[in-house]
Automatic annotation (TrEMBL):
Glycoside hydrolase family 65 N-terminal domain ranges (all copies): 14-266
Residue span(s) of domain Glycoside hydrolase family 65 C-terminal: 697-757
Protein name: Maltose phosphorylase
Family: Belongs to the glycosyl hydrolase 65 family.
Organism: Clostridium grantii DSM 8605
Length: 769
């Protein structure tokens, strides 16, 4: 735990400079707009420890996988999100002495991430070894309105001297990833030019030929008056800069505005990139910093109108939930169906920026309720577009007839993960992808999606499950052998309850959707079935598997068993484990972890969360009471699921305890790993914990269900829900639930079990249960 940030409802505030926490701050204070992301690296030179990170969405490098023992079916490469051209750099020299926060005396340091308006601000005083003192004020943002634009206002004030100030804004394409094998560099320079007051670099990845152009424009003010200046352009390999020399006297303030447009060949042809970024950067300069900032505020205002959560009586919880919502909205904007959400978003290199099941299982609910339908639809289309690759992936593993296994980790549909027990065995991800289709259609009522895209994916996944099970004559049931469930602390298990259950659920749902599409869109139905060579016998096979699937169960305690023989393990509860052992993934050998009964993250409980409508409360409670005490929550994705289940079981304190473990995970660097980047996908889990957990929010049969309670540490809370054409604000006070529909469309609600139909005119007030 590292609690060095100040509590504030709308801002993340650091009020002193510590080299030891700087890399954590670089992650936390990251900014982005879904296309570009930037860690909070200092603009000026910094020789202390720092993880440089400027990311461009969808641009990656297929690095060689490094494994000792090659296994057939392993992927050829591991995708890496690329640290790209550093566009933020501005070096400062005072009479030729360089400003470097690692070596000078720093005071009055403040770094603020303004989440309401979407910018990062920093100020400090620095005393250089010459004794000269300066004050720096820097503000930057990545525009939510102009996809390619980042803008910086950087001012230097002379506090106690007169002398020569050099400001050197630059673009540096000569950057590295810290996770590159053998310190290899991933970028080649294609062209670059430094001109008076502007310049660009055009870089190309060494593999896959992604091109990125960054074009900068500058303007300069002295004591509030624009300076007609001429920078001195200079270039070296993969790098351009512009030196601005200016005489300053005591109390003079010089302010540089740097406008940079960065985009990639994912959106423009290689030969258009320079002219596009030049045009956009010039336009940004013409519009001017303050107008751009105004646009930014308005864009964030709109976002907050649809997604804010207000927590009363607990400023740390308030700050945390807003931070999570802010980071999620900076990471994915849903405009491009070829982009997705890496577990660290644009805040670090870990997990390669690739897509995991986290997207469907955790992030989708957030975007469904806080963004327009197209955003979640694009998350689904991402997988739809990768279906042929998922089929190829399954073929490599020996499956046939159009069976699809989606990758565990991917950028473009190809598997990028190479630990056999995960790559080949953590196949439950297929279930999450199928369930996401149900979730989306249930939420939006966009049933056309099923005929257009969903059914094809469902058929391919069901085909996979039907081939992945085998009939056990000993059990007289279908079994699924050699899998890894969501609990990665045990591998190669037989009959993981969650995986068997999701497999069977997928087949059930696919049959339901087949029947629906046949009835409602026979032409598309016939067309699709003939395209995928669908045989009626497949339906029979699936029905037989559904009816005869084996689910491990313990008659004594009446719980689902996580997998065969789970109870053979020595049964110890986490509370009885000496805390010196925790986290076990840092203290125990892998062998000891695998043999232990300790569970990394929700597994059976993940299934009961997902399919809660299929089970009554007693069943869920028995399983919760058994599994939660054995769960170490060493995945950040774990506590939120437990929070929702605990809340629905009326275990309010447990729900809150679980919520606390997710909410400030990064702000307090709970897992001591925030310097690698923020846990973006688990931030969606925090939202789930508040809205589905404390708010008791569900969508069933076209109706919004609410069963809210207030954690005892809060005095009230409210959240926003975009549900189809309505925008609901749900406020929970100690006595009442107040629901306002901010849009015209009527909505069906069920609050504490009682039905209401609700239009814009009314404010619905329900007494708290
Ligand atoms: C979790 C996985 C998750 C991955 C990326 C792992 O630690 O066990 O469930 O998909 O992290 O967030």
């Amino acid at each position: 735990m590292n609690e060095y940030l100040k509590y504030d409802e709308w801002n993340i505030i650091e009020d002193r400079f510590e080299q030891s926490t700087h890399e954590i701050s670089e992650s936390i204070f990251s900014i982005g707009n879904g296309y570009l992301g930037q860690r909070a690296n200092f603009e000026e030179n910094y020789s202390g420890p720092s993880l440089q990170g400027s990311y461009v969405a969808g641009v990656y490098f297929p690095d060689k996988t490094r494994v000792g023992w090659w296994k057939n079916g392993y992927p050829e490469y591991f995708a890496k999100v690329l640290n790209s051209t550093n566009w933020t750099g501005i070096n400062i020299l005072i009479d030729d002495e360089i400003l470097d926060l690692a070596t000078c005396e720093v005071s009055n340091f403040s770094r603020i991430l303004n989440m309401k308006e979407g910018y990062l601000k920093r100020s400090f005083k620095a005393k250089l070894s010459s004794g000269k003192e300066i004050e720096i004020n820097a503000l930057r943002f990545i525009s939510m309105v102009r996809d390619s634009i980042g803008a910086i206002k950087y001012s230097v004030k002379a506090l106690n001297f007169s002398g020569k100030l050099k400001i050197i804004p630059y673009l540096d394409g000569d950057v590295m990833n810290t996770d590159s094998n053998y310190e290899e560099k991933f970028w080649d320079e294609i062209s670059q030019k430094s001109e008076i007051n502007s310049g660009y670099v055009l870089m190309k990845t060494k593999k896959l030929d992604f091109y990125i152009s960054s074009f900068m424009q500058l303007s300069l003010y002295k004591n509030g008056i624009e300076v007609d200046f001429k920078s001195i352009p200079s270039e070296k390999e993969k790098y351009i800069d512009n030196t601005i020399e200016i005489d300053i006297n005591e109390n003079d303030e010089v302010c540089l505005y740097k406008y940079v447009s960065t985009t990639s060949s994912r959106y423009y042809k290689m030969d258009e990139l320079i002219s596009f970024t030049e045009k956009e950067s010039l336009l940004a300069k013409k519009v001017g910093f303050f107008k751009l900032l105004e646009e930014q505020k308005l864009a964030w205002d709109e976002k907050w109108k649809e997604s804010d959560i207000i927590i009363e009586g607990d400023v740390s919880a308030q700050q945390a939930i807003r931070f999570n919502i802010f980071q999620l909205n900076q990471t994915y904007n849903g405009k491009d169906a070829e982009l997705n959400i890496g577990p660290k978003g644009f805040t670090g290199e870990k997990y390669g920026g690739s897509t995991y099941w986290d997207t469907e299982a955790y992030c989708l609910p957030f975007y469904l309720s806080t963004s327009h339908q197209e955003v979640s639809k694009n998350l689904l289309l991402y997988r739809y577009k990768q279906l042929s690759k998922a089929i190829e992936n399954a073929e490599k593993l020996g499956f046939n007839n159009g069976a699809a296994l989606y990758p565990m980790v991917t950028m473009n549909g190809e598997e990028c993960h190479n630990e056999w027990e995960i790559t080949f065995e953590e196949i439950h991800r297929n279930g999450a992808i199928a369930y996401a289709i149900y979730n989306y259609v249930n939420y939006t009522d966009d049933k056309a999606y099923l005929a257009d895209y969903g059914l094809e994916v469902l058929i391919a996944i069901s085909r996979f499950w039907a081939q992945r099970v085998n009939f056990s004559f000993e059990k007289n049931k279908y079994v699924m052998l050699g899998v890894t469930g969501p609990n990665e602390y045990e591998n190669n298990v037989n009959n993981n309850w969650y995986t068997n259950r999701m497999a069977s659920w997928t087949m059930e749902y696919t049959l339901e959707v087949l029947a629906y599409v046949e009835k409602t869109n026979n032409a598309k139905y016939s067309n699709l079935l003939s395209n995928v060579n669908f045989e009626t016998s497949e339906k029979e096979k699936w029905t037989s598997i559904i009816d005869n699937m084996y689910y491990p169960y313990d008659e004594n305690s009446k719980i689902f068993l996580q997998q065969d023989n789970y109870l053979d393990k020595e049964q110890i509860l986490v509370k009885d484990l000496d805390p010196v052992h925790l986290p076990i993934n840092q203290n125990w050998s892998w062998d000891r972890i695998l043999r232990s009964c300790f569970i990394k993250q929700a597994d059976v409980l993940q299934g009961l969360y997902t399919l809660e409508d299929c089970y009554d409360k007693d069943v869920i409670e028995r399983n919760f009471d058994f599994y939660e005490p054995r769960t170490v929550h060493e995945s950040s994705l774990s506590p939120c699921i437990h929070a929702v289940l605990a809340a629905s079981l009326g275990k309010e304190n447990k729900a809150y305890e679980m919520y606390l473990r997710t909410a400030r995970l990064d702000l307090d660097s709970y897992n001591n790993d925030t310097e690698d980047g923020c846990h973006i996908t688990s931030m969606a889990g925090t939202w789930i914990a508040v809205v589905q957990g404390f708010g008791g929010f569900r969508v069933k049969n076209n109706k919004v269900i609410l069963n809210p309670f207030i954690p005892s540490h809060w005095t009230g809370f409210s959240f926003k829900i975009l549900f189809r054409d309505s925008l609901l604000k749900i406020s929970v006070t100690t006595k009442k639930v107040i629901i306002i529909n901010e849009k015209d469309s009527p909505v069906e609600l069920c609050v504490y079990g009682k039905d209401y139909t609700f239009t814009k005119e009314k404010e619905l007030i329900v007494e708290r249960a």
